[in-house]
Here is the input.
Amino acid sequence: MTVGQRHVAASKSIVIENEMAISERKPMIDRSILFALPKATADFVSLPEPSCFADLLLDQVVTAVTKGRDEYNLLPLFYERLSDVDALSFRHEVWRDLEDATLTQDLRSFSEEIRQVRQRLGWATKSSFIQQRRGWILDAADHYCIAIANISRQLGDASIASRAFLEFRDSLADYAASPAFRDLALEAKALKFQLTTLRYCINVKGSRVRVLRYEGEEDYSAEIDDVFKRFQQGAVKDYRFHYSEWPDMNHVESSIADRVARLFPDVYTALETFCDEHDAFLDPAIASFDRELQFYLAYLDFIEPLKAHGLAFCLPQVENHAKEVSANETFDLALAAKLVALGAPIVPNDFRLNGLERIIVVSGPNQGGKTTFARAFGQLHYLASLGLPVAGSHAQLVLFDELFTHFGKEEDSSYQSGKLEDDLIRIRNVLLRATKNSIIIMNEIFSSTTVRDALVLGTKVVDKIVELDSLCVMVTFVDELTSLGPSIVSMASTINPDNPVERTFKIVRRPADGLAYAIALAEKYGLTYGQLRERISS
Here is the structure.
């Protein structure tokens, strides 16, 4: 016969008899940390991915940001842009509070505790054994109460200034001090304590298992260890049995738990009552806060390795209608994430549009960073519209009504129309929908036609964008488009002057110099007029 001692099996946590009156449950006031004005939760269950995401590689960025957080359904939160400056300021205030490392760590710990609460409630739902289900519910409730008490105290001690956290802190303090919550916390703690003090014996004989009350039987473990210690030579195999930490039970453990419940009916009746009366203890406002908090923490986790690599991030200055925009040391987030993972350097760029300037026309040699620059411009504005820190040491940007992209596609033989016709149709649709408050990103348009036709068509497109007064970045191989008027700024990708085939990936504000690049290449390979003439004459 073996005599053992074991904490109650259900989930290693149980409850005491409830002698307190159950207070009327009063839900916590829902205080959003994402929106200054209330937004319906249903608005964010299923929003479509914005059409600009694929061209700007924002689909890759957002996928990387939300990786490992599928349970929170964060994608819709990155699809909903903000429409006014105050809404952006609301989130910027939160980001400034999160610069406090202690506060951020406290919030991370709280989020992990709530995740464990949901995990235990999930295990309870899936369990086939009644005592185990009740044990998980009790354990979840105890975790929940401890997490709420801790974060309420920590927010009370923290130096916070954002409207979001101040409102949440006040609402949370009222909730944590409410009689209903205090009763829940006291019941859970007391029940768990009483259950952990229960002692019983398991009598195993062959295939029969008996569960008995512990009657003060002696524990011979220490004495047996002492007797056999003298025979020990070197390391020996440990034959002691260790209970599995796997959250599920088997039928034998469940049967033992049921018999323990019969031995201590008062305690287990209290456990049953507790679970019946507190089956929905997780307040919806807490669950909403936890989900919205992930929006900040997920993005923070994404940019931290980039910042550690020496890349700059800033909260941009954003205006409603101002057309003067600029950024310093900005870069393509999708590309940067890949290069940082490889330990490769990232080349940042600057841009600015002043006065009547509206259109940046980017020219220069292929593979020189032009498309990457255009993407970075679009990413900056889109992420700024979410109230997020953006790539760069400084950024002055504008809120937009729509962000349109037109990136060249490979010709598809299944299309009845050719690539040029497809380009024209897509560009026409953009220009028909764009307004003076829109942003347009066009990459390598009309590359399938002649230079002459591309110049004619490109000029018409530029004239229409000037007429709309939209902000635009246009990547083109047609240098003449850079000099069509005062609204246009010419920027060009650069090369190493000592080695024209080496790209620097710097995009600088200067007149288009495609001819100079061609001459540099010709000189490198001995193909200038003078070099050819000298070779022929010799």
Residues 1-23 have pLDDT under 50 and may be disordered. Residues 1-18+80-219+248-308 form one domain.
